[in-house]
Amino acid sequence: MSTPKISIRNLYKIFGARPGEALPLVRDHGLSKADLLEQHQHVLGLQDISIGMQAGEITVIMGLSGSGKSTLIRHLNRLIEPTAGEILLDGRDVMAMGAAELQALRQNAMSMVFQKFALLPHKTVLENAATALKIRGMRREAYEAEARKWLARVGLEGFEGRYPSQLSGGMQQRVGIARALAADSGILLMDEAFSALDPLIRSDMQDLLLELQAELHKTIIFITHDLDEALKLADHLVILKDGAVVQQGAPQHIVMSPAGPYIEEFVRGINRARVLRAGAIARQAAAAGSVSGQVDWNDTLETVIERVNRQPDAVIAVMRNGKVSGIIETGDLLAALLPCTSAPPLGRNTAIAS
Prior knowledge:
- There is one protein chain.
- By secondary structure, the chain is of the alpha/beta class.
- The protein is 39% helix and 23% strand.
- It has 16 helices and 13 strands.
- The chain has helices at 19-27, 33-40, 69-76, 99-109, 125-129, 131-135, 140-153, 169-182, 199-216, 227-233, 251-256, 261-268, 272-275, 278-281, 301-308, 330-337; strands at 6-15, 43-53, 58-63, 84-89, 92-93, 110-114, 187-191, 219-224, 236-241, 244-249, 293-296, 315-320, 323-329.
- Strands 6-7-8-3-9-10 form a six-stranded mixed sheet, sandwiched between helices.
- Helix 9 links the parallel strand 7 (187-191) and strand 8 (219-224).
- Helix 7 (140-153) packs across helix 8 (169-182).
């Protein structure tokens, strides 16, 4: 695998009056989050986080409320300073950047899309979309043309003269995305960007993001508390609990091989047929004499079920780049559709919350 665009190494964040004194208690003596708070009145926000975020991919960080996901994303552009650890961007130490370098990082290298839209209410849609370019000192004709281009791409052509209060929530979030894209930053930080939207609008925004990403190949760090959203968007999924990474990897792998009861409970209720893809369960085998049908590597198991068509001995060829890359038999399909059952329910208090 190539060198990550962003590397987070052994990152800790402790909130309180003396975080430097509290750090060894956690790092060297294993004091828990609850005990740190009870005994020393400090809050453990992040604990030994190490993540590699690849260029051109969507890294989704998810967890329950209070898991540390929003704290983590704010470390990337140093809106929050860590207690310990490293953050590297293209090999450069973000923690070593001075004020001028850090300002350039925020203005040019990273753009942020917020849950609450963060639009300027006294500015038009066009002016909001052009904010970053105007701050950089670009000529008005140039920054307005660029803003119009991206507003059109997100479906807001003709709304340039409106004000945020005249738009629906979904339209306001489109302005926020257009503003981030107009800034032409290689990295997009999206903190619960779609959480405030109605379900149908939210799904549309997810589709829009994937459509744009297929063309633009941005490095996106996306924060969510919603597993369905995470599985839909993620190339790399990171699940946090109490400020620590519980499991990370390809979403398909996490669903198929959850690392313990906590993750098992997370994935228990998902529609596995809709989430898992044929390539995740295909296995190498000698070419079958006859097959019952074929699917693409990226087709969901819903498509595989259609091809099996209740045949107990079905053999489905899985195609990749025009060639057979593996097969799925009916038994493989049934095994993939059965969720892990070893974990006891986590209880009402662990229901995913915003």
